[in-house]
Amino acid sequence: MMDAKGIESVIPHRGNMRMVDEIREFTDEHAIGIKYVRDDEFWCAGHFPGKPIMPGVLQIEALAQTACFLALKHLHLDNGKTLGYFTTMERIKFSHMVKPGDTLELHVDLIMHKMRLYKFHGIAMVDGQKVAEATFTAVMDNRNQ
Fold first, then answer.
1. Catalytic choice (30, 47, 74, 76)
2. Residue-wise pLDDT tens for the chain (145 aa)?
3. 123 phi and psi, to 5 degrees?
4. What's the pTM value of the predicted model, to 2 decimals?
5. Is 47 a catalytic residue?
């Protein structure tokens, strides 16, 4: 298991934009990240007042950050100097709302990679129930190259 400090040693996301609190497991082709959805998140006051619901784009961002962790570990570029950029997002589906107090489990599988291009499939779950799903591609860009 890896905590926030360990995650930040691998991916560049910081502050409110780090959407992964733990990495529970990872191999070269699979990772499980955890996002504890808190009631003091920056989006709670406005999405929606009195009934906060985690924006779907942030759920997909959490999946993408878990995927970024996986790719950077796979490339052995876990030095905080490599960025991952979305190139495509496909088959995005949302099936249930995510609210403060939920624990978002982020299951990401590597579908393929070629050079610095990676394709992933991700499923976000709360209490064993799928809440979001997406297939997406990212390119890993090493800032030192």
1. 47
2. 899 999 998 888 899 999 999 999 999 899 999 999 999 999 999 999 999 999 999 999 999 999 999 988 877 765 667 788 889 999 999 999 999 999 999 999 999 999 889 999 999 999 999 999 999 999 988 765 4
3. -130, 125
4. 0.93
5. yes
HEC string of the chain?
Answer: CECHHHHHCCCCCCHHHCCCCEEEEECCCEEEEEEECCCCCCCCCCCCCCCCCCCHHHHHHHHHHHHHHHHHHHHCCCCCCEEEEEEEEEEEEECCCCCCCCEEEEEEEEEEEECCEEEEEEEEEECCEEEEEEEEEEEEEECCC
**What Cα–Cα distance (Å) separates residue 24 from each residue in 1, 32, 47, 124?**
5, 6, 28, 14
125, β-bridge pairs: 105, 130
Token pair of 62 as six digits: 């959490």
